[in-house]
Specification:
The structure holds 2 protein chains of 2 kinds.
Chain A: E1 5-13, E2 16-21, E3 24-29, E4 41-45, E5 48-52, H1 55-79
Chain B: H1 2-19, E1 23-27, H2 30-39, H3 41-44, E2 49-53, H4 58-61, H5 64-74, E3 79-83, H6 97-100, E4 105-107, H7 111-120, E5 125-132, H8 137-150, E6 155-161, H9 164-175, E7 181-185, H10 186-192, H11 198-204, E8 208-211, H12 215-230, E9 236-238, H13 250-259, E10 260-267, E11 271-280, H14 289-293, H15 308-312, H16 336-339, H17 344-351
Parallel strand pairs in B: 1-2, 1-7, 3-4, 3-5, 5-6, 7-8, 8-9
Antiparallel strand pairs in B: 10-11
The chains are: A alpha+beta, B alpha/beta.
Chain lengths: 80, 359
Amino acid sequence: MCLAIPARIVELKGDIAIAEAMGNRWKIKTTLLPEATVGTLVLVHAGFAIGLIDEEEAKETWELLAEIEAFNQSQDKISG
Amino acid sequence: MLERIHKAQILMDKACQSLARQINIMEVCGTHTVSIFRSGIASTMPARMKLLSGPGCPVCVTPLGYINLVLELAKKKNVLIATYGDMVRVPGSNGSLEKQNNNNVRIVLSSEDALQLAKDNPDKVIVFVAVGFETTTPATAVAVSEADELGIDNFCILSGHKRVIPAMQALLSDKNNRIDAFLCPGHVTVIIGSDAYHPIVSQFAKPCVVAGFEPMQIIQGLGEISRQLIEQKAEVKSVYEAVVTQSGNTTAQKVIESCFEPEDGYWRGLGKIEKSTYKLRPEYSRFDTCKRFGVEEKPVDDTSGCRCGEVLCGLIEPPQCALFGKKCSPDTPVGPCMVSSEGACAAWFKYRPKGKQAQ
């Protein structure tokens, strides 16, 4: 539950932002990370940007998350 | 990458030789637990190095008394329960939110969604089931202060927010004296900062190493712990430097402090721990569910035979519980460690080869 997902801020108005990651866009808040601007890569947890992350680390995490997603789907096929 | 793995493996082997006994490393993060099981890291470690899953899954550490209180509140008229998904299946003494099926439970992904429910349903009182460690606590704090600013009075929270450091201290003080080191949670530490572990190191002389949830991070973390054990040192280190800082997210820390204050609180398996739970400050007490409804969380004995408490303290492994894989499975969970996808029992059930027994 404490998992935070890397995402890029693509829109920002006040502390309300649109984040983008792995082809998805969703609304988040930057209240806890006032230094975030458009283009910043952030870690998102429970709808809030909580920290900064660099490009390389974000890419590694996205790759791992995609791998997990694919693995879970293959498991569902096997057990389902 | 292979070189880094190899380097860590050499350190792990050396640590086992050097200490000449079993080494117990506890991870205090549900995300680590799942990653360790899924990637099969445990099977690549020396036989004498053991990973224990600690009290790192917020759903799992939430005590039965809290769950019972949520179930009681869900029976009230005009109440909407807003909760993170995993909590709906956690059994209380009598059923779960899912089984109770009152049609007044809304799954939310953020405290902001819970606040939105309050705006959209002025004739209902929204009770936000606020669980989670320091990673999640500031999100609740923001929602509460927004509710305050906007004058929203049909929103309240049932704070079950927990602090990770007091739990680690309680474990070492009187629950489990076999822990040699901690693999510390990456995303909690984004908020609290790696400096927060210094009291553990100075008070108990146990290495505290922060790692992200990627398998490579965990392996590097284990390598760093091994190095410290070989050199008979106990230090705070982070192998998650791209994300974690020493001081953490100070804005988030201030947001927590402005809204909450630490109080003694109950944990599953660990009992009452001093200053381990976040309670709303008096100026926000009108958002406190317990005050609003005149109810309180009472400690309850678990009579189901569930041994999640011992699992959470690293005292037993899931298959040592008589219910594991029989009465208790992910489809019919008896305890929270089987409900949450991050729970040790669920991870063990899903990823361990069938027939593999506890060591």
